[in-house]
Specification:
alpha/beta; nine-stranded mixed sheet; eight-stranded parallel sheet; 17 strands
């Protein structure tokens, strides 16, 4: 429908026009067709939304998560990454079926929408079930599917799984009015052998796909890779041809100067996951240095089993603070840098070119945040308020491609109570 938003204070994330006050926004066929001072005469709205006492910004983009891992939330805490994966996560994931993934994804999507996330990049299993959840809920997503994690790999072997994965990438990409994108999962250099790294590089070229990979998450990962290949994980990816494609790399905590230059030269988009990296004791990515040399990092939550939420406001808050303290420098990273990571840079990480900024001809993925809550009062600087003061509970309205997914804190495409009940039930099944 045609939607008119009035009395809109808009943080556009457009460098040429960052903050505009008391504006009118016109939305037609899912796109922004006008932002200005007065309602245009030619526009006939079917719905009018009053944004008084709210600030509007692009929807948040969660650039690295494992959505259905909501089912494993609050179970396996205080463990290093390797132990956490081998003993607490992989045995449970071996039991997963499509119903588990669907219900876990529905729970994760509901949580993300209520927290202002309109798009996410998902690395997981049995993504056929995730497709249904995305279709029903109206969220935007990029699903990463890999040869070794394809549901067909045991049945078809790597060659058959390669074709199945290729078909999935091409058939699902662009569904639901281009709300769904696809990418290639390469879990990591430590879990994927050299042959499959090369296969993934080839598949990315054949399908023009983004590679989504965990890289340089822990010091052990880097040291073991050097022992095995004589190179760091990033250097192995360069050798095998992965970096000849677009790459979104989760974590990138332990990167040396040479690795960082390689990331910049190859246009790798690193994804900062502050909660998860602290939860698993992995360390802190050097985001200030990345920004300084021209890298464009994005922001993610990782899975809810290592966070334990999918709350992007929490990630923004942490990302803006931990680098100040760690570097003894209150200017190490600025609030606007973090907002870019959670919006425009996230769009780059997911491969969507019409979101992340609010301006004419962009798709209407936006959120409205109450600026009169106790924690936002007094409301002086909107950029600081959104990063340092706002919480997920301050999100009032969420829209994707011009469709309202939440209004007045009420989910419109999801039965919240049903989703919580069903996810809790299948989660119990996994642990019995």
């Amino acid at each position: 429908m045609n939607i008119l938003i009035k009395n809109a204070d808009v943080l556009t994330m457009d460098p040429d026009n960052m903050l505009v006050l008391n504006q009118v926004i016109c939305i037609e066929q899912g796109h922004i067709t006008f932002i200005g001072d007065e309602e245009p005469l030619f526009f006939i709205p079917q719905k009018i939304i009053d944004a008084r006492d709210k600030i509007i910004m692009p929807g948040l983009i969660n650039s690295h998560t494992h959505c259905a891992m909501t089912l494993m939330r609050n179970r396996s805490n205080d463990l290093p990454l390797e132990t956490w994966l081998e003993e607490a996560i992989f045995p449970v994931e071996a039991k997963l079926n499509p119903d588990h993934v669907y219900k876990g994804a529905m729970l994760g999507i509901a949580e993300m929408i209520k927290g202002g996330t309109t798009s996410y990049l998902d690395m997981y299993y049995l993504h056929e079930a995730s497709v249904e959840a995305i279709k029903e809920t109206g969220i935007r997503a990029n699903l990463s599917y890999g040869v070794s994690t394809s549901s067909k790999v045991k049945e078809l072997g790597k060659v058959g799984a390669y074709k199945y994965c290729k078909d999935f990438l091409l058939e699902k990409r662009g569904l639901f009015g281009n709300r769904l994108n696809t990418s290639i999962e390469v879990h990591s250099v430590y879990l994927v052998d050299y042959e499959e790294l090369a296969l993934s590089a080839k598949l990315a070229k054949e399908t023009n796909s983004i590679i989504h990979i965990h890289l340089h998450e822990t010091q052990n990962e880097v040291e073991n890779c050097i022992k095995r290949y004589g190179k760091t994980p990033l250097q192995v990816c360069e050798e095998v041809g992965l970096l000849e494609n677009r790459v979104t790399a989760a974590h990138t905590v332990h990167v040396n100067d040479e690795d960082m230059q390689l990331m910049r030269d190859r246009g790798v988009v690193p994804v900062h996951n502050p909660s998860s990296n602290m939860f698993l004791g992995s360390g802190f990515a050097n985001i200030p240095k990345m920004l300084e040399i021209g890298i464009k990092p994005a922001l993610g939550t990782d899975g809810a089993a290592s966070n334990n939420t999918l709350n992007m406001f929490k990630e923004m808050h942490l990302a803006a603070l931990i680098h100040k303290g760690y570097n003894f420098n209150s200017s190490a990273i600025k609030a606007l840098d973090v907002l870019k990571m959670a919006t425009a840079n996230g769009a780059l990480a997911l491969g969507f070119d019409k979101i992340g900024v609010l301006k004419k001809n962009m798709e209407a993925d936006l959120i409205m945040i109450k600026k009169d809550s106790l924690n936002m009062t007094p409301y002086h600087d909107p950029i600081s308020a959104l990063v340092y003061s706002a919480s997920a509970c301050d999100v009032d309205t969420v829209m994707v491609k011009g469709k309202l997914l939440m209004k007045d804190r009420e989910l419109l495409t999801i039965d919240e109570e049903k989703v919580k009940f069903e996810a809790s039930k299948v989660s119990r099944d996994l642990y019995t």
